[in-house]
Amino acid sequence: MSKYEVKSVVCDYGVFEDNELKLICNSHANALKIKEILETDSDMSKPYIWQDQRIAELEEQLKNAIMPKFKPNDDLFVIVGYKDEPKSIEQYYIDEIVVRGNSKHIEYRDIEKETIIGENNFLFATKEEAQAKLEELKGE
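Structure (tokenized):
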């Protein structure tokens, strides 16, 4: 395994391998990153740390991602009426999904019925699920 170092070279930074200049960088941070990559590449027994960190970042982003319950072209069944007085079930067709800013608020749009349905409503994929919930709400 080679030994890599970063040293000052005139007014820039050099990456050295076994005391031999291999590369000159304007940025000290870039030279250090290149050194890290070269060291990792030369020692295949350890994992790519920067890759593991990136995977962890992507997994975190996925956990925090806005995941709509439904997708375009789905039918959507909604219990309508006031929360304390549910009345009926309406069927909508999802034409598009809109996410409002960073608030993670998702809206479903049925263009034909000119309706926007927010996720704060009771939303169901089947009429049977909606009917069961409506009966449960009316029974309370």
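DSSP finds three helices and nine strands in the chain. Residues 28-42 form the longest helix (15 residues).
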